[in-house]
Amino acid sequence: xxxxDKRIMDEEAIITASFQEILDIYxxxxxxxxxxxxxxxxxxxxxxxxxxxxxxxxxxxxxxxAVARIVCAEIGLGSTSICAALLHDVVEDTDxxxxxxxxxxxxxxxxxxxxxxxxxxxVFGMQASEQAENFxxxxxxxxxxxxxxxxxxxxRLHNMRTLEYMPVNKQYKIAGETLYIYxxxxxxxxxxxxxxxxxxxxxxxxxxxxYARIEKKIExxxxxxxxxxxxxxxxxxxSLDKMGYKFHIIGRVKxxxxxxxxxxxxxVAFEDIYDILAVRIxxxxxxxxDENNECFKIYNALTKIYDAHPDRLRDWVNKPRANGYRxxxxxxxxxxxxxxxxxxxxxxxxxxxxxxxxxxxxxxxQGDNNNADKQLDSWLHTIKEILDDPQPNALDFLDTIKLNxxxxxxxxxxxxxxxKTMPQNCTALDLAYSIHTFLGNHCIGAKVNHRLxxxxxxxxxGDQVEILTSNSQHVDAGWLSFVTTAKARAKxxxxxxxxxxxxxxxxxxxxxxxxxQEDLSNFxxxxxxxWKLHNLKNREELMEAIGNGSIQLGNExxxxxxxxxxxxxxxxxxxxxxxxxxxxxxxxxxFDKIDRKTPLTLTDERLxxxxxxxxxxxxxxxxxxxxxxxxxxxxxxHKRKCPVADTLKSSHGDRILAANWDxxxxxxxxxxxxxxxxxxxxxxxxxxxxxxxxxxxGIQKLTIESKDGIFEGTIWVNVHDADDVRTICNSLKxxxxxxxxxxxx
Length: 745
Fold this sequence. Notes:
Beta Polymerase, domain 2, 6-stranded mixed beta sheet, 30 helices, 5 domains, globular, Hypothetical protein af1432, alpha+beta, 5-stranded mixed beta sheet
């Protein structure tokens, strides 16, 4: 037997074993045993993908098998979903059609496969309109059959688990898209374990060094955490044993992504994250007992052992989150003087927490609380309302939807005592739009607990709210700066677009009159020169500006149309370069010349002349970065963690480029550093002495303010790279009274 034959036999054995594992997991579940149907789907998919291999080199059928296993074992779905998972790439990648699937496997499986095929290849296509449309398809199929998005999440999870075989620029695109869309949707559907894994895998590929550093620190502190865990849980176990509970306790370590995210947001070091360890108590309800009440009985038992934090009791038992999550969260002071969060769940609550909506379905027929169903239906109804309005800009559409994916709920009351569930940090205007679009469009303020407040007032749980309106009120673009819900933002944008269309029509009339008066009809196709002259993005923006009077058509615009003056592109944020003359080549020709598979090498010379430094995140040598090809074929350098880059990875993934630094400390970058601590005589002198004299680094600007014995300031320093910033921060940390120091992004 030659090597090739042996390899084929080994692969056949692996494929067969993988399918048998799925059957074993399925047969051990409570689902109806439709083994014959699943076997037919497997045989069909295996034949359809015969001879095809993935980027990893393994037979393609291993991917549908892996997705089916996730669907069965990790999400807990049944035979229909397992079959759809096995068949999910057949229609897209082979000559078989949805009609073939319908004839062989029935209507339900065909509909799910059709839904998956429509949103295949990732959420997004090549063009902005296609990106918005494909994401709409995903949301629409979610509302028609939630299993479509659940299988799509399983598909994405396996792709993330095998992402190492993709080119680096594709890794950034897929990881960014995952973090931006799939992780939040997983959270919204209650798939907490999958959401955490998606976040960690995205973090691992976007910031490999940071990921490895945090993993190493977690492992280094493991022994200390184990001692703390054993000391903390030992008296709890004894107490619950005396109460006669069947239970098990597990320690939950905060994920690397969550730790890193908190470090970024709070500007703190790993050592300053104090909630890395949490404890989860999972109990078996006793016969005849209400499991909700039992959660509080266990909580009361814990308060006799440890002091509870008065402001950190979270009752998700009686008021579940919108994704169906139920548990009682409390925080206790350990004997070592550290706060530790404890999550108290029944077995049923834990299963719903791990498997989300799929597990909730399982308990529907057992009299389970249907609040999660109502919350999900409400959310899907909001999504449908947003989809009803045209969304010309894909990025605005994505941001609008994403607003509600990670929202934590509060509960407010109408004047008649009706309870309304709203996202945390929502405003009175958000509530107005949640009740009715008319209320939102004409809102002038509200009465909260019988006190008059403005429309941007942030609501608190338990508030009673009366919305105040006026027919003379009109929607204002400034409202977008403080609303927090997807529905409010979508309705405001829809109203503004209606206003913009009116102004654009008026602008078109004024422009047509202008070219008629000046006899410029032969040059009207050169209108692009006018909007670029005024640093606008497109014809629509130009017509709106003409319509509202902010642009008065005159000699400058006439010369632009005639081409009497050489036209310049608007200035870009290039390091050392302000303007680029119009290229003769078409944009598509330039785009094709860029090798998107080869990482950019960012040298001192190229930074000075060829690439733009993004003004949204101000990357410097040493930061994890990527390149983005904009509409004018300029390459913009962003930090990989930049929020703008996150959106671009999701919406324009084909324009993302891998990038590496190769600089030699010849260029200076201006970087702000935040410093905070206890005020004292000479503290400012100590700071400037270290930066100027010891480190020989220039200070561009310094602002500092002291109040009640605490000072806080920002220092703008001239540095060559991220190593210089770390040196400054490490040196300033040695000053006795400094408590916090971090670079500001």
